[in-house]
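Now for today's protein.

===
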Amino acid sequence: MPKLSRRSRILLILGAVVLVALIAGSRLVGTYVDWLWFGEVGYRGIFTTIVLTRIAVWAAVGAFIGGILAFNLWLAYRKRPVFVPMGGPEDPLARYRAVVTERSKLIGIGLPVIVGVIAGLAGQGYWKTVQLFFNSASFGRTDPQFGHDISFYTFELPFYRWLLALGFVAVALSFIGALVTHYIFGGIRLAGRSAQVSVPARVQLAVLAGIFVLLKAVDFFFDRYDLLLSQRSDLFTGATYTDLHAVMPSKLILMCIALFCAVAFFAAVFLRNLQIPALATVLLVLSSLVVGALWPALLQQFSVEPNAKQREAQSIQRNINATRQAYGITKNKINEVSYKGTSNVSAEEVAQDEGTISNIRLLDPTLLSETFTQLQQQYNFYGFPDELDIDRYRNAQGELQDYLVAVRGINTDGLAANQQSWINRHMVYTHGNGFVTAPADRVDSVPGEGADVGSYPVFSMSDVSNNGKGRIPVDQPRVYYGELVQDYAIVGGDPGAAPREYDTPNSKYTYKGEGGVAIGNWFKRLTYAAYYGERNILFNQAIGSESKLIHKRNPRERVQEVAPWLKLDGDSYPAVINGEVKWILDGYTTLNNYPYSQLTSFGQASSDSQGGPPQPDQQINYIRNSVKITVDAYDGTVTLYTVDQQDPVLKAWKGIFPGLVKPESAISPELRQHFRYPTDLFNTQRTMLTQYHVDDPGAFYSNQGFWQVPSDPHTSGGNNSADKQPPYYVLAQNPTQNRPTFQLTSSLTALRRPNLASWVSVSSAPETYGQFTLLQLPTNTQTPGPVQVQRQMESTPKVTQDRTLFDNPGVRPRFGNLLTLPVQGGLLYVEPIYIQPSSENTYPQLARVLTYFGGKVGYAPTLGESLEQVFGAGAGEQADTAAGSGDEQQTENGQQPPQDGQQPPQDGQQPSGQPADPEVAQAVSDIQAALDRIRSAQQSGNLGELGSAFQQLEEATRRFEQAQGSGG
């Protein structure tokens, strides 16, 4: 090798240092930023625990792999032949011997260090496996085959498997290293068709091979436990008859053969003949083929398959019991009721159903985000999520009522082009403003009309303009942490500096919360400037000694950083708790190694047509909603609460991170009132319930009585589809309850059939939280399912008469959620229809309500009228009462709801008399003409004409705004 000068060596060293600094610099900056952020949220102990565990695992794995490799390289080098036979001047190994000999220490130390570092980097990713092993908690349940506690399979066996894998890697690398070393230094010589092996080489390689085979014997022993998660059967997870009576015994046989094979290799240390270990290896391979593969295949083909229903009965029963337990759908949690599904109910009986009829939800949270945005956004830099949330509060009469709720969050992506400066995005438009609600069971009514042609939600707002004193008052309406915000914000400055954050058109604000990382010193400013690649953080003069940088502002992101071991539900929602706006999230603990429990893809089982953040497409067979989390919308405080004290997985993680999750006793009664049963968990459970409501193994094997989640009739077009109908939050009273409760509901249809088989709900009420109600319909009758009902409703003459609604290019109809509700022994379907003009800046408005019961369809502007078309006069009394006037009919500034499709006055715009400007006067005249057309279309029920009138109104309103100089 060429000799380098001293200057060249120095330059190479400096280059290497610079390269390492560039590679590691960004990682170090990121680590420091994370350390600062964890200090801000008060969970720095979590960060240090994770980092120290990773470092410890990295060091242990690196030392183990690298140390064993180094020892075997040293042993092979030391035991090399003293006189190496030369192969002549053309010997290709001579140069390698010279290099290794000259740099023996460098290679003997450097190579194991490099291998150890790489192995450690791969091994540190298993820090969770290591920590769960040392903090395992008992399940208090044993598996039906070996009698071990379930914790052995979930916490201990993965750790043993990991150690075994490390042993295989260490022995394999050592064998290769020793083999190459002995070959280079003549311990192994290839001469013609034969080979000569020195005694030291034979001893070392034989011992390594024996250890490898010995580890394989241990692997065969552990394979028996893995059979309890076998997927040999397409029907269920767990050890099948073949696994229990063929594969499991074969593992013990192979283990014994492997032990014999290992002894044969160790015997080669004393015997010069290598034929014995070679024959033992052949025996092990042949035994694996015959005993491990052929015997189970023959048993499966000629004994099990012809009698599978009887042979697999025991395994299926074990699978049923384990799956119910692992997914939380045991019989004691499900109230099963035989439901007659009657089709004949009188109007008087419907009128008496106060619990469900008076609370039927008309507003669809998946469709009305545009309506909230158009009517409550105020400014372009505010916004609402694509999907609103449903929660419940007490109304003015003290009655429980479900509401559409949303936070008016900051959305800097909505800034106009001339507003997109760095200062505006990060220092001026820093926070959202207000908590907006609308009762979910009503819309505003238009006084003086013959029919209620409600279009708008009845909004209530608690924001800065009214000091948070809306229908649901909040102490601090400013929102710094939300679902829409992506940018970091820099708040505060020097003491006494003028406020700079936009608050209202006439005022500025300075953040006073505890959130954010202090960046008053230059080192932290330099760190964040490097982290974001933004020099303005370093040179902006408004950043002072009391400035803070607020980042990781999405509630899901904050929680995932604090608790990376949790899977989070896809739907976080805001709630007002003791006057504070909190984001509430649901955390899941999951496993994929619960013996005999059915493995399923979490991403697929929890999905539906509604969308939302998808769950990872990972296999799970155990799930618990063991943690509820809140994130303060003002200061970002993350708080985790225990809600399942019996969950062993949560107990293990609490042992790893003591003090992270607060006890259940820390949950305030008001916070508990706003807990919802999470949708992803419910979706997964209903998917499993479609099969695992069956008790008999024979019926399970034959798929008798299986159900399925129905396709969403709006996305499937009535055909089988992967888009499953989502569950719906409703305030209703099912037959097992004595009062209405907030619950999550879903229909279930027969397997590969569209008719309804059952209806399932789970309570979110604090006193009955997590209790399922399952209404099973008779199998000798046919109750239409959601797709069938949707078809029948759309083909009803009253609906087909309004085909102009569907054909008018100026209007787009949008069907809302199809609710299925138990009413007086039958099942009532309710579906709102919204219309939305096709022009820009429009929004859905409620136009009609469809109802279905017992083959009859109602179609009317109001729920009450629609019910009376189905059941007769008086049936809609409770529904009409719910939509009546009162304090719910006014917005928070005292204005009446919009009339006849008119938009409410905007901030700063006062109702005026006759305008003096001719263009304004003409625009007002055109608006009045459009309103007259709307009244006429509403009275005649011509929805096509109604859509055209709305389009005319939009154009006239735009010209009116331009004439006033408002610019829209």
Summary: The CA atoms of residues 96 and 430 lie 65 Å apart. Residues 446-454, 883-916 have pLDDT under 50 and may be disordered. The two ends are 77 Å apart (CA to CA). The first helix runs from residue 6 to 41.
